[in-house]
Design goal:
Layout (H helix, E strand, L loop, with lengths): L1 H19 L4 H4 L2 H16 L1 H13 L26 E2 L12 E5 L2 E6 L8 E5 L6 E2 L11 E12 L7 E9 L4 E9 L7 E2 L14 E8 L5 E7 L9 E7 L6 E10 L9 E9 L2 E8 L8 E7 L28 E7 L5 E8 L6 E11 L2 E4 L7 E2 L2
Antiparallel strand pairs: 1-21, 2-3, 3-4, 4-5, 6-7, 7-8, 8-9, 10-11, 11-12, 12-13, 14-15, 15-16, 17-18, 18-19, 19-20
């Protein structure tokens, strides 16, 4: 019963997020919050004690007070541990840092995230993936085609060994009034990044828009961009796509290929945030699914023999999902894969904090067992440093 109450509380906290406002996707659509609200009501109806709690919380959130209401801070289900020497505990970035992307330049890692705190693109740097130093806005000036305030999921890569850094980002396209993908460049990973072109780089307006770009470099030098059509915004089917890009990453080549759609029950009405990773000759597509604003948000995977598929989903369960027992992660997603100094793979991702007011960046080791990715986490306990 205590886990059922915890589940109800987590979901109700997310519903509070809707009442209090959010800085990114909440401003664009309320559909995700509605899904979380419906699930919270279902859980409440199944557990009388949780229902009483829900009723009390709902009563305190009267419409006249909605503008000033704030989520009530609650203790974590278990005490936070103290790491020993050469250990760390999550989160590694304990502030709102959604949809993290990490790129390594020399001995330094740079992380980028969805808009928050008045910045368009958040940035931080680290030498060990654990201790992060916040930096300024990586893209303080937005292109003219962009409506400010909805800059999501930046992806930074270098196609020329660090001479130029290319950023793919999601923003509101003024012309179509949809979220679309833009591209910007800089000669410094800290920015400032400047937009390229006078219109969006990828914009499937007839499919709801395009979001969550990521990059992939094949061993033979072929370069790709992946993304999601934002169909769930408007009642359209949702797919993850891949397409070749030019040597400088600024021009699409050929035609896009559909990779996967939401065809498993846990995925809800969408898949998004693709990350393509090659391991032992196989291509692993990690992705997020379900409502980002609810505890059902999770991370899945598919595998193929080529970067363009066809991709199969060997498991009917997520790779990472909400930990209802300890609260180690709530709605884990928006992932990226990074290699540490010893060549080991790690997965960085966001998770709601216990009060459901921000999505912090977590880090867990990603290992490969019998051809399948396995995350050593989510975990609240101390872990060895990368």
């Amino acid at each position: 019963m205590k886990y059922g109450i915890l589940r109800c509380w987590l979901l109700l906290s997310v519903v509070f997020l809707a009442a209090c406002g959010n800085t990114d996707r909440e401003a664009a659509s309320n559909s995700a919050v509605a899904a979380a609200s419906n699930e919270a009501l279902a859980v409440a109806s199944a557990a009388p004690s949780a229902a009483q709690t829900a009723a009390s919380v709902a009563a305190s959130a009267a419409p006249s007070a909605a503008a000033s209401a704030k989520p009530t801070a609650r203790p974590s289900p278990t005490p936070l541990p103290t790491p020993g020497p050469n250990e760390f505990v999550n989160p590694v970035i304990a502030q709102d840092f959604p949809d993290p992307d990490i790129v390594k330049v020399g001995d330094t890692y740079y992380a980028y995230a969805t808009n928050a705190g008045g910045t368009n693109v958040q940035t931080a740097k680290s030498t060990d993936l654990v201790a992060w130093q916040p930096l300024g806005d990586a893209m303080p000036s937005l292109p003219q085609w962009v409506q400010p305030g909805l800059t999501w999921a930046p992806e930074v890569t270098t196609w020329d060994d660090g001479q130029t850094f290319t950023m793919y980002f999601t923003a509101r396209d003024i012309a179509s009034d949809k979220q679309c993908i833009g591209v910007a460049t800089s000669n410094n990973p800290e920015g400032p990044f400047n937009g390229v072109g006078d219109k969006a780089f990828i914009c499937q307006a007839e499919q709801g828009g395009s979001i969550d770009a990521s990059s992939f470099l094949e061993d033979d030098g072929t370069q790709y961009v992946l993304w999601k059509n934002d169909g769930n915004c408007c009642g359209y089917p949702v797919y993850l796509y891949i397409q070749k890009v030019s040597e400088d990453g600024l021009t699409l080549e050929g035609e896009p290929t559909q990779l996967i759609t939401n065809d498993q029950s846990w995925e809800g009405n969408l898949v998004e945030a693709p990350t393509l990773w090659k391991h032992n000759g196989k291509y692993y597509l990690l992705y997020s699914a379900n409502s980002y604003a609810g505890a059902d948000y999770a991370t899945g995977w598919a595998v193929a023999d080529t970067p363009t598929g066809p991709f199969a989903k060997p498991s009917s369960k997520p790779l990472m999902e909400t930990d209802y027992k300890t609260g180690a992660a709530i709605g884990p997603g928006g992932q990226d894969v990074i290699v540490d100094k010893d060549g080991e793979t790690w997965i960085a991702y966001h998770s709601w904090d216990p009060t459901a007011t921000m999505r912090r960046m977590l880090l867990d080791e990603l290992v490969w067992e019998n051809g399948q990715p396995v995350v050593k986490g989510p975990d609240k306990g101390p872990q060895p440093n990368p």
